[in-house]
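User: Structure tokens for both sequences below?

Assistant:
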Amino acid sequence: MVFLYETNTTSLQQEQNECSNQFYSRVGLMRDFIFRKIYQVLIDWPSADIRTVPNVMHQIRCGTDEKDAKIEYQINWFIDCAETHIHNHRNSFDTFCLEGEYEEKIWEIIDENDGTISYQFTRNPDNILSSAESVSGTLRHVASRYHFPGNKMHVNTQQFHSVTPIIGSEERVLTFLVKEKYTVPVDTFILNSKPYVDSLDDDMRPATKDERQDMYNKLIEVLTKNNTLYTIEKLSLELQ
């Protein structure tokens, strides 16, 4: 697979591995850790940083790790988890599924020297795409993974994927993310078999009052349903 940018893959992968090892040795990321993070968000709800990507998701920023400010925690509650553009991410992350399910399709450009051309678009921080740049090879779906309650997946920065909801799944997808910001700059791209893509409609804004209330109700439901140590009674005492 050939890309039009260069990166120090060995250095980046080493940093990603170190991040993952440090995190798991420190916290283990048991379900109790996730529920504790949810509980902490609820205790300080008026200050909760909640954002919405219309028609896509509500997102809660849960702060950074106490021992490593490069590690960030986040909750995503999807309105529609479909991601049709084939893309990579600026930061690698671990995603833990709490509710709902989806299929992640992994894509690669495979060059078989048959003259086939695919296209790469640089995604700028303001969500503006560059003009198409041609890449030799065919864009192919090479693997799939399924995300479901209790499952953990790692998504690295050089993995190009799209996401498809599972037909018949009634629950909206709710995930907990552990992200690492790297010192090695990582560019983001969209891949396509054609020299154009539909416009990106995923601008983020602060959540409305009603959206915040919906998110609050969902997190209360998660703690209650999972019979956690962080009970509603305990939360009520904390808020008094």
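Moving on to the next sequence.
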Amino acid sequence: MSVLDDCQREEIAIGLFAATVERDAQQRLKASCYQALKKITCRVRRGALILTGEVPSYFHKQLAQEAVRALALKYSISNQIAVASREYGARRSSPAKGGRYEH
């Protein structure tokens, strides 16, 4: 049995923390009273909590971001949720460059 060095222990702890943040963020969105938020996917990559999926309005996109903000802690939030425009049948996303918000 090998003994883990400090660096390996830290990597494991970071991975467990990221998995916990993903799980908790996903649970928070699924518990929302807004049906549109239940289909959003959350994952942690490269220091960001990334939100993906599609919602019917910018209001729902913002709700999703705010629902997970307190869980993000040391992560930035990258809101890559697409907004489906029923009027024009097109998808829109904002901001234009990467959909990344810092907090």
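User: Anything stand out in the second?

Assistant: The longest helix spans residues 6-30.
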